Amino acid sequence: MSTPTLRIQVDNAHYVRAIGRESQIVVGPVSFDIKGGEFLSIIGPASCGKTSLLKMIAGILQVTGGEIRISGAKLNPPCRDFGLVPHEPALLPWRTCMQNILLHAEMRGADMDLSRNRARRLLAWFGLSRFEERKPHELPPGAAQAISICRALVHEPSLLLMDEPLRSLNPLQLEQMLDGFQRLWAESGTTAMLCTCNMHEAVLLSDRIAVMSPRPGRILEILSIDLPRPRRLDKTMTPQIADYCSRIRTVFRAQGILP
Amino acid sequence: MAESEEQSFARKSPGRVTVRPGNAAIAVTVLLLACELVVRGLEIRPAVFPSPSRVLLEILREAPRLTQHAWVTACESLEGLLLALLAGIPIASLAAVSIRTRRITDPVLGILRKLPVIAFAPLMVIWLGFGIPPAAAVSFLVCLLPIVAGLQAGFNSVPAGIVEILQVMGASPSRVFLKVNLPACLPFAARTLRLSVPLAFGGATAAEFVGSDTGLGYLMLYASSNANTTRLFAALTVLILMTLCAYFIIFFIERAWISWPAEPLPWSDFEQQAYSNESSRDQRL
User: Fold this and answer.
1) What is the rounded CA–CA span in Å between residue A197 and residue A30?
2) Where in chain A are the domains?
3) Is the ipTM of this complex over 0.90?
4) Using the beta-carbon criterion (under 8 Å), do A92 and B162 form an inter-chain contact?
5) In a designed cystine with B121, which of A55, A195, B181, B207 is the match (CB 3.0 to 4.6 A)?
6) Which residues in chain A touch residue B164, judged by CB atoms under 8 angstroms apart?
7) A173 CA to centre of own chain
């Protein structure tokens, strides 16, 4: 299941993008690490380089300088057993939900029956079992993102990378998903990294939160969240969550991002 | 109950209208009847505007000849269409895969699009001879552009983020093309093919006007020079019916096979499309 030995070390990594003749620093240099089984969130203003950082760790973008090591080994090609959840659901419209979830098994030639059973479990978990044989355009709003999360989790990835997966949900759906997702994550024990712009989301889900500056994105502060799980936005916990949020706000205020 | 609830989630796909063949049949019948009444009531001479019943009689009387010529025109048009598809698939798929190919193909196709292609028909007659080959060539030239544009748009109509997901899964570029770009193109291919049918038939007929001794175009030209309006109408009717037939055959195949919504076809200008796609591509990379 989980791989507690997995450890992501990001060491002075930066990413420079060439736009015409000019080159622009998108990220970094940044240094941090993600421990096995940990949930790390990256929070920062829009276009601060969160997505680029995530893609660097996924191996889709090559680091311009510095190094990213996965369990000590240098990361080069895309790591095949990671799970990726992009900010749009990115489901293939001609495939049923089940076929969409099984994409990874199909690509890697994994055991289809085993994957199908896991997929069924995940679908049941999100309460979407009846949509198994439906196409994405037949799904209720918000469910497509759940399918996308199922697709990233079905092969029990050693690292789950999420790029603002919940940003298109309405507030009520968001709260449902936050609650459900916490339990799912606790059950799977996967190491996870989440990019987000939502402080509540970050505080509810994460063990640690890295706060990023505007472009070129650097890590300003890493906060540890010491709250018992499961975390909910209820009476007892809301003040503590608000407290963490205000700490994040203080960092942003110092940067002039928030008034 | 649960079933209907799930059904209600299915959003109506864009650009798809429920087809009611009954309504269309009624509309056409009413129009033809009105036409018949007006022509008879005003006593318009057949040489100017023959009544629909007269045209129908002419079609029945001349059926063997019309069929023979219609067969020729159909063959020419479909040959042209098929050739355009065969040429269009590699061009469009290359352009979808490599941005370098696109930098060459897009301007060429953009220029070609602004040319009155049918005007090349006399040249085709000189180069390819009399009869079927020039007609097929003109129908090919007329169809090539919309087909390439449609296929190209189809290959590129990939949900944002899926390519990266597949990369993380370790899929090679050719695998991505096979699993994502190719199926994404299917609805576009069907639609472009369907919308190219009238172009193909029009192109073939125009070439027959220029240099041919068979085909409906030749028959129409001949009837026109003899002032035989009724026969002209008969040939025209057969041509229209044939075009509609081919169109609806593709339409029904499309409806049976493609059950997911796709973006509408962009029949926009080639250069504009190129620019917008290039910028979105860079972001993706």
Assistant:
1) 19
2) 8-81+157-254
3) no
4) yes
5) B207
6) 55, 58, 60, 84, 86
7) 18
